[in-house]
């Protein structure tokens, strides 16, 4: 392989947008992607902004980091608006998101959450049942109220991925299927070695390989503690009910949205069975539990057939993005988006591109430096 200004490891949403940004600025970029388990190919297309109850419940120790990152989510959805205008359509809609409460306790939880989120600049409001009637008359009668976050939205990630990749290729980015085994310092630059024995040299490397970033940083005196999390998804046939919003629940794991085709995408973090580098296995209990919950919240969905289920690999860390140069190997830039990583992906990808051009992103991404993992 030839010498390149920049090698991006990982061709998910972060790597693709990073590469596109550098190429548009005139840099030569090569993306190396192993083609395995990209969260960007498996995700639900929810543009998240409000704190997800699932995250607070499952990872309470990480919730403060996500809360501190809320302003990033606002910037991330504004960037998605911009990308949709330049490279879309991605079937993107930003009508807001509703987080539902079935009990007064859940409603109180949402009130407290909304008050905290408003302090970070989110456009949030608590709706009682009568307030919900005009926005979402299809909800089950037992739904007492909801938090409406007007900043949220949804898109079709398959459209967004394809269009952004095409734009990057048009700007000159070369995508190659290869698994990177190691990145090493070599003179003033870096040597990138792939599993098939090939090597290429680059001035800089962006590690945008999500769950795979930990293995590549291990030899660089700073281990980035990313973990793979296998998650379940479903999509139904088209339904008659018109659902404008992204729907979530105050206590249960669910995201539910409608694509332009009328199909309902149901997910929200039900587990799948991880199988290392192989695609995760769908668990019947996740399929049944996830769609049963959807049918309880939106009764008209109960008659729809599930056309497809799948499982994909999410990347988790400590709740914040991981973004910045490695101290012992400053040519290497880590770019891992954090919770709701598809939403944050373009923002983190663009920032990684700016860092590669010599800018300092630490003010725009407070607390996100990989230095926090230096022991
Ligand atoms: C089922 C599911 C639903 C989700 N739903 C949402 C949602 O609705 N909204 C949201 O905001 N987020 C969602 N997420 C999270 C989101 O998809 C991810 O956080 C995001 O896509 C991560 O993007 P990325 O570019 O950092 O990494 P990825 O998209 O995971 O891409 C990383 C790429 O790096 C490659 N790679 C890894 N190691 C190497 C190596 N050594 N050499 C070469 N290539 C390598 C992988 O093969 C992969 O292609 C969901 C995740 C899952 C699994």
Verbal overview:
Helices cover 31% and strands 30% of the residues. The protein is an alpha+beta fold. The chain folds into two domains: 4-41 and 159-226 and 318-373, FAD/NAD(P)-binding domain (3-Layer(bba) Sandwich), CATH 3.50.50.60; 94-153 and 228-316, 2-Layer Sandwich (D-Amino Acid Oxidase, Chain A, domain 2). The strands form four sheets. Strands 1, 2, 8, 9, 10, 11, 19 and 20 form an eight-stranded mixed β-sheet that branches. The chain has an eight-stranded mixed β-sheet with strand order 5-6-4-13-14-15-12-18, sandwiched between helices. Helix 1 runs parallel beside helix 8, helix 1 (13-24) runs parallel beside helix 11 (341-356) and helix 5 packs across helix 11. The longest helix is centred in the N-terminal third of the chain and has 18 residues, at 70-87. Bound molecules: flavin-adenine dinucleotide (FAD). Residues 9-15, 32-40, 42-46, 48, 179-180, 208-210, 212, 216, 231, 233, 267, 312-315, 336-337, 340-343, 345 line the site of flavin-adenine dinucleotide.
